[in-house]
Amino acid sequence: MAVEYAMPAFHFIVDGAGPVSFSEISGLNVEVQMMEYRGGAQPEFQTIKQPGLKKFTEITMKKGIFPGDNQFYEWWNTASLNIVERRDLTISLLNEQHVPVMIWKVKNAWASKVEGPTLKGDGNEIAVESITIQHEGITVDNIG
């Protein structure tokens, strides 16, 4: 009998953000906000809970800094009053054969924040920058 293991989270690819290789992605969260309601004629003296609007958190993507690579700032710089470059992103978790097994599709993403690296004179880390993405929804496809 073959043993199945959970997928490791270190092998993934992002399409739609340019030819960028990310080292970390966080914020792939979805939530349904809860609403409470009680009609005045309801015999119980309590509220009922029902689903409300869907809510999506911001996504943060991190990558190492390379000479001449200014893509994060160029995308972030497209945001001005009422005008912004929106992109659809596809984030795929890959198996050992580099085939997607789980896909997150992010709708109408735009760059709201770019954070530069922490610089330390006595450090021994890679210079990493991050970009924060706002968006209008995520759909999840577990291909399995």
Task: Write up what this structure looks like.
It contains one helix and nine strands. The chain is mainly beta. It has a single domain (12-142), classed as Pnp Oxidase, Chain A, CATH 2.30.110. Strands 1, 2, 5, 6, 7, 8 and 9 form a seven-stranded antiparallel β-sheet that branches. The protein has a two-stranded antiparallel sheet with strand order 3-4. A hairpin with a 5-residue loop joins strand 6 (87-94) and strand 7 (100-115). The two termini are 18 Å apart. The relative contact order is 0.24. The model has no long low-confidence stretch (mean pLDDT 91).
What's the main sheet like?
7 strands, antiparallel
| Total count of helical runs of at least 4 residues | 1
For this structure, the CATH topology is: Pnp Oxidase, Chain A
Average pLDDT works out at: 91
The CATH architecture name reads Roll
Number of strands: 9
Question: In percent terms, what proportion of residues is strand?
Answer: over 45%
Shape: extended
Gap from first CA to last CA? 18 Å
**pLDDT < 50 stretches:** none
- The helical percent reads under 10%
Helix/strand/pairing category: mainly beta
CATH class: Mainly Beta
User: Which H/E pattern describes the elements?
Assistant: EEEEEHEEEE
Instruction: Give the domain tally.
Output: 1
User: Nearest-angstrom radius of gyration?
Assistant: 20 Å
